[in-house]
Every structure is written in C-alpha cells, then in structure tokens.
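ok posting inputs for the tryptophanyl-5'AMP job
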Amino acid sequence: MKKRIFSGIQPTGSIHIGNYLGAIKNWVQLQNEYDSIFCIVDLHALTNPQAVLKMQEKILDLATIYLSAGLNPKKCILFVQSQVPEHTELTWLLNTITPIGELERMTQFKEKAQQFKQSINMGLFDYPVLMAADILLYQTDVVPVGQDQKQHVELARMIARKFNHQFGETFNLPEALIYKNSAKIMSLSDPSKKMSKSMSQGCLFMTDSPDIIKDKIRSAVTDSGSEIKYDPKKPAIANLLAIYSAFSELSSNQIEQKYKNKGYADFKKDLAEIVIKGLEPFQEKKKALDKKPDFVKKILVNGAKKARKIARKNIFEAKKKMGLV
Ligand code: TYM
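and the output
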C-alpha cells in the first residue's frame, strides 16, 4: 500500500514562490509516489480578519493555481476544507486532549498575536489543532511543508500519540517532509524575514509578469562584497542562490562555478530569466484555466466527495474510541 501525504495552503491571496518552492512544486513530484490529498484550507484563512473578503474568488484562484502548477486530479484528491465538516468535528475532539501550554508555545501564534494585537481571536489560538485534525483525519503518514509548519506537524504527532495512549491505537503518527534547499525562502527586500503573504513587499508572486519579476529581482537587497558564493553570513545571496538552484536544478556549487568571474548584475539578470522561464508553463496554463471556472469547481466537488468518504470512516472510529458511538 502507498503511504499517504496530506498538505494544504490558505486561500489568503496571491501565492508566492516561497509557497511554490516550499510546497506545491514538491507536491507535483510526490503525487506520483504517494496516495495524495491536497486541501485549500479556507477555515484556517478565516483566522485572518481580512480573508473573509472575496473568499470564493480566492478559493477558486488557489484551486486553479494547484492545477496549473501540475497537480493532477487523476493522481490526487483536491478539495476545500470547509466542504468536509469532519475537519471541525475532529478539531473539537482533539481540543479536549490538547494542553493549552502546547498552543501557547507555537511560534506562529506568538508572531500573529503580535501582528494582530487588537484582534487575537480564539481561532488563531486553536489553529494548530484544526491543522492536526486535517492531518489525522486522513491517517496521514507524511506532511510535505515548508520549515515554518514543522512545529505544527510535530504538535499533530504529539496529539495523535496522546489520543492513542488515552483511547487506544487510532491515528497514524505523521511526519513532516521538508526539502532543505527550499524550506524557507526569504523576502527579497529583507532577507532576515520569511517571504510571506502578509508582507507583500519582497514577495515574488507566481502570477507576476516577466517585467515585474525582472524589476523585483533587479532591486532585491544584496550583501556587501560582489562574490556569487554561498555564505550563511550573507543571507541575501544565500537566498537568491536557493531560488536559482530550485528553479534551475543546479547545485549551489555549480552556480558558484558559473559566476566565478561575474558580478551581481549578470547573476540577477540570469536569475530573472530562469524564474520567468520556470513560471511560464504555469502562467500559460493558468490563463487558460481561468476561463474554465466550472471545470475547476467540478474537480473540487468531486474531491470533497472522495475526501469525505475517508474522513467519515476515521471520525467514526475516533468517536467510537471516545465512547461517543
Ligand atoms: P501557508 O498557507 O502559510 O503556506 C503554505 C505552504 O507554503 C509554505 N511556505 C513556505 N515555504 C518556503 N518558504 C517560504 N517563505 C514559505 N512560506 C510559506 C508553508 O510552509 C506551507 O507548506 N498551516 C498551513 C496550512 C495547513 C496545512 C494543514 C499544511 C493547514 N492545514 C495540514 C499541511 C497540513 C499554512 O498556513 O500554510
């Protein structure tokens, strides 16, 4: 039997190359080897007060992005989280065994709480339990994500272990799968910060036009010196090398050799070309699929049916173990 993977992205606006390189690009390969389920996590997005605006548009856009990037509904299940109500049902069950102290430790919660000081909602605090429910509901083995989600996957594993211990063997213990080179793509304008949807400055979006890509890469922050060489003490060039490497499949070493006697200007010019070329097939496919919203919606409806079948079976099992059935 194939191992199962599950992952998801929030429909909170444009998808950047951090999401692409850290997540979607890897999923496209993994769908060939794993029993694969990919979700549009709209319930998670609700924790951001602005996300409710045009939610249906954003969901459809993210689904179109998934398909245009190469996810194939014949090889994987694609669906919208809120269309499978068992996610929220399992969240409640898991809430009852999750220690508050564990949630208070979550780095992402602490950062978001800082960012939304005036409006820290309960959903933001409970976010990792909903994510654990997403993962455990499908008896997931492997969760392919970027570095920032590692702590949440570890929490899901802890919750599964606790549930099994308390109520008897029920859930698989999931593991995060993180690709080292693209685990954390940094902002082009501030390489000490993660490229992030909430900080659109310094973001390279998957739908950016060639001119915008050229512009953004040309004006990306650089470090002192002029050498194109990986050095952890030089985060700007390290980040640009990671992006170059992910799009070209060349190693850092090979790239360093190529630019031995060249400077930043040449390197950045080529990097822009590589990114533009790398995103071109995706952008063309997206333009075509944008004209077929009904086709995309149908894939999501079918996906939800398939996901729900698995979810129903597992929620029943969990409720039975807890004495509810
Ligand atoms: P989200 O929507 O913030 O991000 C989606 C995916 O993109 C990765 N990512 C990055 N990777 C590399 N560099 C970056 N700068 C970068 N920014 C984002 C994230 O690690 C993620 O893999 N909580 C999740 C969504 C979620 C989920 C799940 C994931 C909900 N339920 C169950 C896996 C399994 C999130 O907010 O991702």
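notes: The radius of gyration is 20 Å. The first strand starts at residue 4 and ends at 9.
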